[in-house]
Amino acid sequence: MKLGELVKNPKGFKITGIYRISRFEVKTARNGKAYGDCLISDHSFEVPAKYWDIPTERVALFQKNGVLRIDATLDYFKDSPQLTIESVFLPLPAEVDQSLSSLGMMAPRPIDDMYVELKSIIANVGHEGLRKLLTGIFVDDRQFAEKFKRHPGAVKNHHAYIGGLLEHTLEVAVGALDYCKRNDKIKRDILLAAALVHDIGKVREIEVDMLGMGIGFTREGKLLRHISLGLEMLESACQSVGLEAEISLMLKHCILSHHGQAEWGSPVEPMFLEAELLHYLDNLSAKTEQFYREAERAEPGGFNKSATLRREIYRPGWE
Amino acid sequence: MKLGELVKNPKGFKITGIYRISRFEVKTARNGKAYGDCLISDHSFEVPAKYWDIPTERVALFQKNGVLRIDATLDYFKDSPQLTIESVFLPLPAEVDQSLSSLGMMAPRPIDDMYVELKSIIANVGHEGLRKLLTGIFVDDRQFAEKFKRHPGAVKNHHAYIGGLLEHTLEVAVGALDYCKRNDKIKRDILLAAALVHDIGKVREIEVDMLGMGIGFTREGKLLRHISLGLEMLESACQSVGLEAEISLMLKHCILSHHGQAEWGSPVEPMFLEAELLHYLDNLSAKTEQFYREAERAEPGGFNKSATLRREIYRPGWE
Amino acid sequence: MKLGELVKNPKGFKITGIYRISRFEVKTARNGKAYGDCLISDHSFEVPAKYWDIPTERVALFQKNGVLRIDATLDYFKDSPQLTIESVFLPLPAEVDQSLSSLGMMAPRPIDDMYVELKSIIANVGHEGLRKLLTGIFVDDRQFAEKFKRHPGAVKNHHAYIGGLLEHTLEVAVGALDYCKRNDKIKRDILLAAALVHDIGKVREIEVDMLGMGIGFTREGKLLRHISLGLEMLESACQSVGLEAEISLMLKHCILSHHGQAEWGSPVEPMFLEAELLHYLDNLSAKTEQFYREAERAEPGGFNKSATLRREIYRPGWE
Amino acid sequence: MKLGELVKNPKGFKITGIYRISRFEVKTARNGKAYGDCLISDHSFEVPAKYWDIPTERVALFQKNGVLRIDATLDYFKDSPQLTIESVFLPLPAEVDQSLSSLGMMAPRPIDDMYVELKSIIANVGHEGLRKLLTGIFVDDRQFAEKFKRHPGAVKNHHAYIGGLLEHTLEVAVGALDYCKRNDKIKRDILLAAALVHDIGKVREIEVDMLGMGIGFTREGKLLRHISLGLEMLESACQSVGLEAEISLMLKHCILSHHGQAEWGSPVEPMFLEAELLHYLDNLSAKTEQFYREAERAEPGGFNKSATLRREIYRPGWE
Amino acid sequence: MKLGELVKNPKGFKITGIYRISRFEVKTARNGKAYGDCLISDHSFEVPAKYWDIPTERVALFQKNGVLRIDATLDYFKDSPQLTIESVFLPLPAEVDQSLSSLGMMAPRPIDDMYVELKSIIANVGHEGLRKLLTGIFVDDRQFAEKFKRHPGAVKNHHAYIGGLLEHTLEVAVGALDYCKRNDKIKRDILLAAALVHDIGKVREIEVDMLGMGIGFTREGKLLRHISLGLEMLESACQSVGLEAEISLMLKHCILSHHGQAEWGSPVEPMFLEAELLHYLDNLSAKTEQFYREAERAEPGGFNKSATLRREIYRPGWE
Amino acid sequence: MKLGELVKNPKGFKITGIYRISRFEVKTARNGKAYGDCLISDHSFEVPAKYWDIPTERVALFQKNGVLRIDATLDYFKDSPQLTIESVFLPLPAEVDQSLSSLGMMAPRPIDDMYVELKSIIANVGHEGLRKLLTGIFVDDRQFAEKFKRHPGAVKNHHAYIGGLLEHTLEVAVGALDYCKRNDKIKRDILLAAALVHDIGKVREIEVDMLGMGIGFTREGKLLRHISLGLEMLESACQSVGLEAEISLMLKHCILSHHGQAEWGSPVEPMFLEAELLHYLDNLSAKTEQFYREAERAEPGGFNKSATLRREIYRPGWE
């Protein structure tokens, strides 16, 4: 059950489901017994909950896990809903992903599916050096690959959920492949490789919580931003596979210029076709996700004032 | 023969071919006889030519036609090439288009082919009102359709040749269709219709010469620009077919906002998904043509300083 | 009595007057009886009021009217004033306008007087086509004329009250007439007509409440803004009277460019004298009203931080 | 005769008239004799002229005077017109002003008339302190008054001719008086005084030639600009007449803010009504002169690309 | 004791110390007796305090002094600390400064020491006219000198405490002296004099409270800003000592341009070496103080979001 | 002799000196013999020269060397000076540097002296890791050190001569040391190291000619700019010496942010004290050189319109 719908129910209503633990603290009640004081949330709602007389072994469950299966009873305190927890369980791994997804905290498409598609795209890159480079980064560097697969695309702006970075990267790459079908003047392998690596620096820029949701920026994320971090990671990968100089230089330029303008974070503007196209393909993917989500917050035929887009977003009056 | 290659030949060299007449004047030679003083050009080069003792009936040929088949002899004046015209002929209509195309003054793909594709796209629009609207504009309004088919996409920036507006419009529309295949959240018919009408105002904004090449802006083009002109044309078409209010409003917003920002000519930023996507799809088509053409002017592995893009454009060192 | 002065009186004080009903809801009291819970306001103050045991027939009075004559008794709840309504009456139409005006919710000068002046200005336009055009818009189109006469000039910025649009339009037109007296190089009829039509799009852009006060923007107001809406309305009127092309084009340019710069909403800058003058005459009227009102909120010799003007406004220390 | 019309005449044509001497140098001809080499101009055209065997006493005439009455014969050198001077005379003072005016180098209205009007406006200022201040500046300070009366309003932008500063100042002041008639909320004397002093710093900012035409900026004009120079002059005048502090402060603010924005040279934006109005009244006068002059350079129904206005200016197709 | 540490202590804890009186009012308690209701603060914390049965002669103490020595007892009201004042004393002047300094409300270095250094720098200026000018302003004009010595450098941005203006001015001047040692191309006396006078206008721009802390801007500070005020003060001083024109002009330009750009408040950019250097030396001093203070508010190794610097400031993880 | 002074001498004048060969070509004279056609220049002037009947062995001299000792005779062609070369010699290495320096093409101070100072500064860095890092870059990496020592600081803007990069770097570093003496809150070793490495990327960004003068940008210089190149070089050096993470991160941030703002090329603004100071110290050095050089081009008491500084630069009227 979505937490936003709790209030439609009367006091005493029983709920069960997998939710995020946004905050957890052990406190002492007036009767001297320990109780758990926590906030339970799904992607858009947050509800306070109390676990009276919490058994000691359950405390660790809360402290080590970001999501738990919860059985609770609804109560109201000054008209606001509040839950009394009856019992908690560790959900199965498969259950966790499924519930994250249904709560809007994970990419709609299964991460493993997307990763398989990513690898297949890489395997089809014609230029040997680029194929080696991409394989080195996204497949052979297991530690990076694991992080990348589940990393969010942003803290707030777009694809801001688990697996969002992979999803966005794949959208840009597939968009590039599609576009190249109609345009034989484009250096397809350059554009494709640039699409795949353009945001790798976000893995080091965005700080994630226990679950993998973005909660802010890392120290190096704030001081260097993902473009410079991505350049550093790419340079190291290019060195490893001995990529030829011009191609490595073009890829670096694509990362550096993909925000398009100085005021949007790119100190150089795109200076060749593939770099320019990357900028627009990146935006197509990012803005589709962002506009759709922002429009959903409006009534059909109405507007939603979007803080991240700095304008009002219209939602058409029919589906 | 491309005029840029003339200088590789010696004085007395004979050339024959179809060229543009950029300027023509009848003057009087020192011997008291009339001669034709003109400039012959292809898309990238311009050469002065003299037609001594020009027969009176040929004068009209020059005055009424933008391109002519020319037989001439090469001469040099202060190291610069100059032609002496021996005879001129009116080329066949088919020959004209072919030569315009080979001179870079017409879209590479035949205009009629492109128009057939445009009509087939319109015929497949699902929404009846929109299909009527588009048919009304691009098919039934014969006068507009004839102009639109051969109109240039710009005076200088992109698709600046005969048929360029149709070519660009088609690229944006096909790009929209492609993109929608992967994204079921987009209102496909809105995006498609917006893609087709986004630049119709250019037919009234850009002034063309006898051939159909853009040579500047019309009076209303300067005072109102193509966005306002397009809005006016769309409003009139919407009224004709009685398009429902919300859809007509959304299309108008797409035209109004498709430059993306106030400083780029759009007084409102895109406020829904389809309008935002149009902005990027428009750029993909425009920038592909523009970057490719600007890069061609550089040596492989070198840069070309582009005035219209305000930056240097790199041409990769390999093909 | 101004509501801002209520707090100078003791509990039990009786007031009577015509006020705006900003909010009205029927609720059930603890004793099970219906009561009316509302907010009563004048232009600068808002006070909660309760109407205990509200008679059923009075409920409709509240629901159908924006202003009512109210008899009430003053009370205090946690030091804040609150009214208990004794009885309400429907004010006479003449009373309504008078009280709106004294509450700062209507233009100081009677609307009918201003409209008479507007018509007399139009009747004196020398150019026949323009006189027809203006008569068509402001006199013959009765539906538009009725809306225009009472429409506010803005939601917040300037002339933001009933009749404000007419008042502002008249000020710009009279300013144009005055200025032309000293300058015979100006095409007076163009400037005058441009002054009269420059903001007609606001009738469709600004959403008004039951009373006629601006409360936000309409759907088309947000998606197209008043400049594009005004262009559309003007084009339609020009077609009706068959205005000559150049004059119609110049008027459209005046509407399009009257905000002066891209960042202020005009995609083209004024390109002839009359368009440029309109921009400054528009500002003279708008800023006189806005600065005067903002300064009134400061103490004499002090400053008021104006949100709409984004600066502090000084009020001189003497009158 | 306007110099721009010279070329319509054949070699040997005689002209006589009063012209500006833009450049004059004594050189030695091949025959060893001295000749005068000069440039003769009116406001829009410049023609080279030779004075063969120039009599010594005439050399001084050229060196000490900016305009001379010239009798000359037309010749052509490589198709360009060139004059051979037959004789020169010192024109009468009245003749000079008249001819400067007809050449577009002096305000159309006689300077003395304008100055009389200025003094009469000052005499009618109600506030005694302000009247004293303005009398002190524009009447009693004879040295300043003499300069001010003939100073140009700019080097290039607007009112860029002798007497232009006085003409512009008067236009702004009269505009202020007119506007105040309709608006009793404006502090008329403040606005009027601000209008009169707003550009006094230009007397020290613009460097003039012998005739009084602006030819560039003075050292202090470049380093401080006319706003800071005007503030300094005003402060000194305020001290002299002991003007009350608040009024003096308000006038200074009006000078400081009259360009309206930081990017246009005003470090503070107008912060009270009269300062804001001054900004628009200043623009009305400046832009009327500038647009009219720029439009005159276009054909009727055509455009002139204006360098100072950074846009194309349209000239209507009828008078 | 720092007020921020109060809460570590239990109810009934006794404190004594010199604090700022941020607000003081005499009220009547329920028992009908007068009591003092005030806010006690140091630079970063504010605590409410009550002085029950306040003796009449103590009321004046509070009203006339910004800091007092206070003996009080700690209490808690809804978990927030609150003080009950037992007695108050007037601190000795030396005590006041010492405590202001320890509370971060006064420059760390004694004001008299800094002033001695300032005078010694002036005495060593080589150019006689400049030495006279500076002596006239900073030494002979006793009234100005007394204000300048204790004036804050800003209300919020940098050196925002008593003596901050003197401290900042000295830092810029010493920086100039240091820099000149390595660069013999700089006109040392010009740069030094410019450094000393660059912010003198702040004495008239910033409004101070009884203690001397900046609490806002004066009327002339808002309407003219410190750059124009400083120019006026400098002009008057230059006149007094009859400084040669070029030097006076260069100093004025230094004041006018020292913010570097129009958008930062300087209507002209620096146009000679010394003016340009002043801009950077001014920033070195200002930013050192500001960054250091903002970084102190972060944890070591963490960030502080600075409102005045509009970015996050990093504090290194080690000392 | 400075080439700019050539024109003061008559035809036939003999000159001898070491000059730059800006262009050299072997051509065939009308008499069928080979001659050398070249341009001889010093930093501010360029003169054409002919070497008639050039001996074959001299051709190589011209082709392999950027500067030569030249004996020539002055001639005039259409009033412009032209040289006839009598003989050329290879100058001694010491002579070359000396003459480059006197021609303004090399830093005024000997490169080896500056490099010794640089090493001594590095040797005195207290933090062991930073000392190792700097030694690794500037001393142990012999290839880089040799390039760095003679590299220009820019193509045009500042320190645009051989050794200019070393000179500028040293100025910033010494400025940092000086400034730290007075401010114990600065992390001296961080600031110093940042000063030394801030422009190392210029070695890869600026393309130099045979002599070492900057003639444009390299391919990677255009596509990545010196900030990104410097980051890459720094990262590699940090890895080599295993510098601790926080310090390496802070240095990278200093390079990335040292241009201060997005519009000046830094995608992040300085976020800690040392990074902010670097920005101003960098400017102090750069602007001192640039303003001084630009002012030298003006007359004393006059202005020079500087293209690189986009403003007029004033040169004081006395030395």
Number of strands of chain A: 9
Domain count of chain A: 2
* Rounded mean pLDDT score of chain A: 93
Give the CATH class of the largest domain in chain A: Mainly Alpha
Oligomer: homohexamer
Class derived from helix and strand content of chain A: alpha+beta
Largest interface: A-B, 39 and 39 residues
Organism (chains A, B, C, D, E, F): Sporomusa acidovorans (strain ATCC 49682 / DSM 3132 / Mol)
InterPro entries (chains A, B, C, D, E, F): HD/PDEase_dom, HD_domain, HDIG_dom, YhaM_exoribonuc/phosphodiest
Keywords (chains A, B, C, D, E, F): Hydrolase
Protein name (chains A, B, C, D, E, F): 3'-5' exoribonuclease YhaM
Notes on the protein architecture:
- Chains A, B, C, D, E, F: It comes from Sporomusa acidovorans (strain ATCC 49682 / DSM 3132 / Mol).
- Chains A, B, C, D, E, F: Keywords: Hydrolase.
- Chains A, B, C, D, E, F: It is an enzyme of class 3 (hydrolase).
- Chains A, B, C, D, E, F: This is 3'-5' exoribonuclease YhaM.
- Chains A, B, C, D, E, F: Its EC number is 3.1.-.-.
- Six copies of one chain form a homohexamer.
- The longest helix of chain A is centred in the C-terminal third of the chain and has 24 residues, at 273-296.
- Chain A is 46% helix and 20% strand.
- The mean pLDDT of chain A is 93.
- In chain A, the strands form three sheets. In chain A, strands 1-2-3-5-4 form a five-stranded mixed β-barrel. Chain A has a two-stranded antiparallel ribbon with strand order 6-7.
- Chain A is α+β, with helices and mostly antiparallel strands.
- The two termini of chain A are 24 Å apart.
- Chain A contains eleven helices and nine strands.
- In chain A, a hairpin with a 2-residue loop joins strand 4 and strand 5 (80-89).
- Chain A has two domains: 3-97, Nucleic acid-binding proteins (OB fold (Dihydrolipoamide Acetyltransferase, E2P), Beta Barrel); 106-295, Hypothetical protein af1432.
- The A-B interface holds A 171, 174-175, 178-179, 182-183, 185-187, 190, 246, 250, 253, 269, 271-273, 276-277, 280-281, 283-284, 287-288, 291-292, 295, 301, 303, 311-318 and B 171, 174-175, 178-179, 182-183, 185-187, 190, 246, 250, 253, 269, 271-273, 276-277, 280-281, 283-284, 287-288, 291-292, 295, 301, 303, 311-318.
